[in-house]
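Structure (tokenized):
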């Protein structure tokens, strides 16, 4: 009888350890709050890792990336609007704030912040990874100014966002 009780206790403890170890990897993604004054649009396809943020609002501007670079090379938007960066090239693109390789031109941005999901999911102007042809990435600009950006994977391809 004592052996049965001991075995039951050991089994319960081991089950508890297994549940604890596997439940630690589950992270709930933040739920975006849509702007009630903006119509919702279909969310563009995120990169294969599922880590790229894409807002659910209509973009203030769309920039297309091709094998020859970003088009248009300069867009003007209002503060709080979103720019959608679409990859129509034959390879990956990694859109990020200038200056290569630090990505620190846009306030609060920096490539070192890419490891922290809470930063790159919305706060920094950096896709933090490449995204494939046919995919897109978007960023909402809350700081007025003229903001240069580049493709981290091909730094000679650049563009500018003017936020009024």
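Design, position by position:
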């Amino acid at each position: 009888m004592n052996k049965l009780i001991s075995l039951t206790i050991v089994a319960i403890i081991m089950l508890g350890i297994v549940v604890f170890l596997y439940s630690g990897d589950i992270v709930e993604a933040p739920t975006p709050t849509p702007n009630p004054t903006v119509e919702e649009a279909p969310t563009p396809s995120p990169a294969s890792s599922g880590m790229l943020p894409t807002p659910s609002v209509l973009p203030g501007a769309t920039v297309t990336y091709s094998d020859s670079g970003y088009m248009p090379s300069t867009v003007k938007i209002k503060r709080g609007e979103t720019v959608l960066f679409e990859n129509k090239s034959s390879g990956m693109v990694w859109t990020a704030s200038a200056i290569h390789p630090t990505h620190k031109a846009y306030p609060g941005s920096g490539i070192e912040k890419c490891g922290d999901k809470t930063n790159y999911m919305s706060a920094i102007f950096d896709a933090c990874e490449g995204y494939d042809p046919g995919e897109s990435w978007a960023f909402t600009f809350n700081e007025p100014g003229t903001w240069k950006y580049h493709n981290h994977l091909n730094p000679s391809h650049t563009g500018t966002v003017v936020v009024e």
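Reviewer-requested clarification: The beta strands are 61-66, 69-71, 74-77, 82-87, 95-97, 136-140, 145-151, 154-163. Residues 61-163 form a domain with the Immunoglobulin-like fold (CATH 2.60.40.420).
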